[in-house]
Each structure stands twice: as C-alpha cells, then as structure tokens.
Amino acid sequence: MQTLIINKGMVLRNVIMFMLTGVLLLPGGCLKDNTEDLIKKEEEAIKEFIEKNNITVQPTESGLYYIETKEGDGRQPVEGDSVLVNYIGLNLTGRVFDTNIESVAKDNMIWSQYGYYNPFGFLVGTASIIDGWNEGILFMKEGGEATLLLPSSIAFHNYEAVLYEITLLKVYSPDEEIELLEQYLLENNITTEPKESGLYYIETEAGTGLQPQQGDTVDVHYTGKLIDGTVFDTSVGGSPFSFALGTGFVIPGWDEGIAYMKEGGKATLIIPSNLGYRSTGTSSIPPYSTLIFDVELIDVR
C-alpha cells in the first residue's frame, strides 16, 4: 500500500545538478565573454546538426525542433493529463546518456541497478519536468514517435543541446476518470453519496468491535481492483496487512475509509485518484485511476 517511489532520471529538474567547469572562477567581464562564447558554440552545434541531418522543420518560438517520425492515432495530451512514454536521451554526437529502456541502457553501457526501466510517467505541465518535454509532448498523439531537439534553454541550461527520441504510449485524463466512475456507479446500481473528500464508503457487513482511532494499529484483509475489475493486489490467502491509522503510511482513501469501520466489519471503498495514487500511479496502477477496495477489519490494537 505504500506509494511507489520512482527514480525518474535525467528528465526531472530536481535531480539535475551541473557546474560549468572554470566559469564560476572567472572575473565578471570574462564571465560574460565566456557565456557568450558558450551560447555561440551551442548555436553553431545545433546549426551543424540540422544541416548534416537535412532537418527542414522550423523551430518553435522556444527553440524546440519537433521532428515527428511516426504519427500517432490516439489521444493528444493537454496540460494536466498524465502520460506514459519510452525515451532515449542523446547528445548531438549520438551518445546515449539516459533512457528508460533496459536493453538500450545495457547496449550503451549506462545500465544501473538503481535505474527505472519501465514506461516513464509524468504530469504534463508540471514544473519538475524540463520545458522541452512539456512543450514537445503536446504535439504528439498516442502511439506516435518523435525526436525532440532541445536547446539547453529548455533543457538543462548547460549550453549543450540534447535530443530525445520519444514514444507516447498512453494518455490519461482526469476527465476520463470522472466518466468511468460515473459509468461504474450506474452499472453497479450504487446510490451511496460520496463523503466530502470524494470517497465512497459502502458498508457490506457491520462490525461489532472497536472503531479505530488515529494512531491505532489495525489488521486488514483486502482486495484491490481497478475500475475495470482488474485485481492489482490482495492479502487474501496470506497474512493481514497491518498499519498505523492516520499516519500517512497508506493512501488517504484508506486512512479515511478504515476509520469508519468497526472490528469484524467489512466494506467496499471506492477511492478516486485524488485519494489514491493521483496523476502518477504506480507500476500496476495507471495515473488517474479510481480504485475499488473490498476490506475487512480484523483487529484494532
């Protein structure tokens, strides 16, 4: 039940640290001159790359070159959507410096035991993603492939342009989650009104024991399903899951829902993504997923 923490690699702003060797040691006038030289060098490198590879697309106002290599036929993301992508990051000489594709990492000798080699998800428009990605992904559609040529002003601000080869695998929309939830409630004849938070608490068997308070340790059996019925996790057949209630150890929908129960009781919790795994999801839970949990409160202590 703990939120999965993903190492998102080079694309995230907050894990990027760089220093221009020697620049910070120069006096003021030399610093300006050196910066201008670095800018000019980067511009020349981009121009040379464009000419060498016969790239005819025009840059956007930001300087992004969006080069579509395969047109997608699915949804086009908008700001606020979450997306899943595969990507390869290269410098202009073709050296791969980052990827979420394990075989590519191994082939280019950048594989790490700490790397995250699964589709990479992010929220479009978030400040934690480099500007070039936030802009470039908006041109794509599901199933499409593109190369983004990013000057450093919309990438890592180190006077070195980079390339990203991106495949857009899936787009997840908060609007779609609302539609799917409404359909689920209708098809299952659920008339229970949601709590103020948005949680649907449906008691299926009343308990007769203690009602847990914040800080109590509870033992719970559960089965977790996506709204389409896919089971992604269960404790049934094994040991109950134990946690301290109200301490943030589990998703907010659990902290709230279990607090309504009594020992020996059973309930169904319908948990919208704002009380679950939000716009990021996990390896088994897509972004913007409403979750259905059948839970049984075994013990309170």
Give a verbal description of the structure.
With 301 residues, the protein is α+β, with helices and mostly antiparallel strands. It has two domains: 9-171, Chitinase A, domain 3 (Roll); 175-300, Chitinase A, domain 3. The chain is built from five helices and twelve strands.
List keywords for this structure.
301 residues, alpha+beta, Chitinase A, domain 3, 2 domains, six-stranded antiparallel beta sheet, 5 helices, 12 strands, elongated, disordered N terminus
CATH topology of the largest domain: Chitinase A, domain 3
Indicate the structural class: alpha+beta
Elements, N to C (H/E): HEEEHEHEEHEEEEHEE
Radius of gyration: 24 Å
Strand coverage percent: 25-35%
Helix content class: 10-25%
Low-pLDDT regions: 1-9, 14-26
Please state the second-level CATH architecture of the largest domain: Roll
Largest sheet: 6 strands, antiparallel
Measured between the Cα atoms of the first and last residue, the distance is 20 Å
Number of DSSP helical runs: 5
What's the level 1 CATH class of the largest domain? Alpha Beta
Overall, the morphology is elongated
Counting structural domains, the number is 2
Q: Mean pLDDT, rounded to whole units? A: 91
Report the count of strand segments: 12
